[in-house]
Amino acid sequence: MTALIEIERLTKRFGGFTAVDDVTFSVAKGEVLGFLGPNGAGKSTTMRMLAGFMTPTSGTARICGEDVVDRPVAAKRHLGFLPEGAPTYPEMTVTGFLQFCGRARGFHGSALNDRVAHAMALTQLEGVRLQPVETLSKGFKRRVGLAAALLHDPAVLVLDEPTDGLDPNQKHEVRNLIRAMAPEKAIVISTHILEEVAAVCTRAVVIARGRVVADATPAELAAKGPTMDAVFRALTLPEVEAA
Ligand SMILES: Nc1ncnc2c1ncn2[C@@H]1O[C@H](COP(=O)(O)OP(=O)(O)OP(=O)(O)O)[C@@H](O)[C@H]1O
């Protein structure tokens, strides 16, 4: 299996506080890695460093073999990143925003229009295509962000809570979409929803206080206790309490 994401000893300190502490894992093509942990565990910080949005204090991250710090443009070519929250440029319409993202990715003319139309179809945004992003509900804003991440059909997807704010039907659709794309890509999703891990992930990495406390398949994790909730608490609470 080819590792499309390679994270080695990644660390981020904010002053004297270590938010991400010596994190190592890799993700191969075909894998959907669930990145789990309690609030403040360091998930978003790890994902931001992987996406080249934040410089690590130490350690390395590579996307399709390209170091995100030394070769940021080459690494980002292979990456679709859905950050936390809503897309920027809220006054743009959905179509306008996605066209802007597509142009930034180097698409023009009919190729640009095809890309935007395809991404909108995948994320079911056609009904709101002419609406300004700021007027959309949270779930629709999330899907606009997801469409922007998928636009260039990248080999690597890093999705920070992709189903946050979606209703159950939309969650189902987004999980189906992730599953459908999975064979051709390496995907990392962070989530608080334990059922999502069983539903879409082939592997799970659990972090607490910035450190990896488990790296296993969903079935291996589930076998560690009576419920996924209990396993999650056993893995993460001692770390939180010890801090
Ligand atoms: N720019 C920053 N400056 C200082 N501290 C920060 C900064 N960004 C994050 N932190 C801290 O680093 C820790 C990890 O934050 P992070 O957002 O990565 O956690 P998370 O696992 O994504 O949490 P959540 O599940 O709540 O989104 C937190 O204690 C947070 O307050």
UniProtKB/TrEMBL annotation:
**Ranges where the ABC transporter domain occurs:** 5-234
Keywords annotated in UniProt: ATP-binding, Nucleotide-binding, Transport
Do the record's keywords include Zinc? no
| Any one GO molecular-function label of the UniProt entry | ATP binding
Q: Do you know which InterPro entries this protein is assigned to?
A: AAA+_ATPase, ABC_transporter-like_ATP-bd, P-loop_NTPase
**UniProt signal peptide:** none
Coiled coil region boundaries? none
Q: Which CDD domains match?
A: ABC_DR_subfamily_A
Which Pfam families does this one have? ABC_tran
Q: Give the family this protein belongs to, as stated in its UniProt record.
A: Belongs to the ABC transporter superfamily.
- Protein name (Swiss-Prot/TrEMBL): ABC transporter ATP-binding protein
Taxonomy-wise, where does this protein's organism fall, top ranks first? Bacteria, Pseudomonadati, Pseudomonadota, Alphaproteobacteria, Acetobacterales
